[in-house]
Amino acid sequence: MDAELQRKAKDHLWMHFTRQSTMEHSGVPVIVRGEGHHIWDSDGRRYIDGLAGLFVVNAGHGRARLAEAAAKQAEQLAFFPLWSYAHPAAIELADRLAGYAPGDLNRVFFTSGGGEAVETAFKLAKHYWKLRGKPGKHKVISRAIAYHGTTQGALAITGIPAMKAMFEPVTPGGFRVPNTNIYRAAEMGAPTDPDAFGAWAADRIEEMIQFEGPDTVAAIFLEPVQNSGGCFPPPPGYFQRVREICDKYDVLMVSDEVICAFGRIGHMFACDEYGYVPDMITCAKGMTSGYSPIGATIISDRIYEPFKHGNTSFYHGYTFGGHPVSAAVALENLDIFE
User: Fold this and answer.
1) Residue 169, preceding peptide bond in cis (omega within 30° of 0)
2) CA dihedral 58, 60, 63, 67 (to 10 degrees)
3) C-beta separation of 316 from 71 below 8 A
4) CA 149 to CA 113: how far, in whole Å?
5) Beta carbons of 92 and 290 less than 8 angstroms apart
6) Helix, strand or coil for residue 281?
7) Would you call 140 helix, strand, or coil by DSSP?
8) Are the C-beta atoms of 335 and 291 separated by less than 8 Å?
9) Closest Cα partner for 268 from 131, 134, 105?
10) Of the candidates 324, 257, 317, which has an alpha carbon nearest to the alpha carbon of residue 124?
11) Which residues does the chain have with pLDDT short of 50?
12) How far apart, in Å, are the Cα atoms of 144 and each of 15, 54, 128, 230, 241?
């Protein structure tokens, strides 16, 4: 059976972020089962799933109640889009997420995953400023070596040059500032004291806004703990200073919590850990512990306001955004976390 699977994989499967030559020459591990924090391959070898799949399986493998929640929902309503219609699971999940989110982040736009959530926030930021009479605000800032997705728009926010080189030109408007890797502070010409370093790193954001012109910058995308490059937590006071800068220059602050949300650092949303309220939160991965795909962009009342009245529509959406089965699994998964 394994030899047959290897042949089919070699002949037809194009894997993600993988050198296909590896599979051509030596095959690929075929994972067939998971339980708790362990997975097994088709040869019966057991592994510790130290990465939780892809920072996803927060509740662990083999949770029968999540599979049962998916089956129950699929029997009742397997699919219907959120295009001018709604269904109970999406409504209940939106209510749940808004309840977890800080401040006035009360509106939930569902996607199929994290990259789409970032794409949504990017498009929404530009649309919002056009409705507010500031059409020049279209640029977005992110940090060096930050990963925010690989779709064409999100790739403009991702700060890893090697991931973008073969796809240039990407969507214009993405600009980079230093990240919070204090281990490399001296190499960046920055102070090594944590408090001073936090102020320095945040001030580089203000500097970039001033350099590009405040009337051209729409938003900044930041992970609470930046994963790509080595998992960089924020220095003391960093996010408080960033919030001040965003308010000063009318720049939207997006907390990209695709990895950090849903308990990964002890809170449903990691911005609570670091004491800041963003204008948008992007999330996905751990919302269902990977048992079914889903993502979301959670939006403040302030950003929702110009869409609330009149004939303005946000012409953006996904076939599987807020999928009934995924939403039902998410609700059950959040029950487990609670």
Assistant:
1) yes
2) 60
3) no
4) 10
5) no
6) strand
7) strand
8) no
9) 105
10) 317
11) none
12) 26, 21, 26, 12, 18
d(CA 254, CA 277): 9
Q: Give the number of residues written for the chain.
A: 338
- Residue 33, phi then psi, degrees to nearest 5: -155, 150
Tokens read off for 255:
């907390």
**Interaxial angle between packed helices 64-76 and 324-337, expressed in degrees from 0 to 180 and rounded to the nearest 10:** 150
Are β-strands 38-41 and 31-35 bridged in parallel, bridged antiparallel, or unpaired?
antiparallel
- The per-residue pLDDT for 18 is 82
- 182-195 pLDDT tens trace: 999 999 999 999 99
How many helical (H) and strand (E) elements, i.e. helices and strands, does the chain have? 13, 10
CA gap 13, 27 in Å, rounded: 11
Residue indicated by tokens 């512990």:
289
> What is the number of other CB atoms lying within 10 angstroms of the CB of residue 207?
12
The predicted pLDDT at position 1 comes to 59
Q: What is the rounded distance in angstroms from the CA atom of residue 115 to the CA atom of residue 121?
A: 10
Whether the CB-CB separation of 124 and 131 falls below 8 Å is answered with: no
- Run of H or E including 68: helix 64-76
What residues does 221 pair with on adjacent strands? 254
CA dist., res. 214 & res. 201, Å (int) = 18
Nearest CA-CA partner of 147 in 51, 276, 246, 256: 256
pTM over 0.90, yes/no:
yes
Count of CA atoms in the C-beta half-sphere (13 A) of 302: 14
Three-class DSSP category at 276: coil
Q: Which residues face 40 on adjacent strands?
A: 33, 46
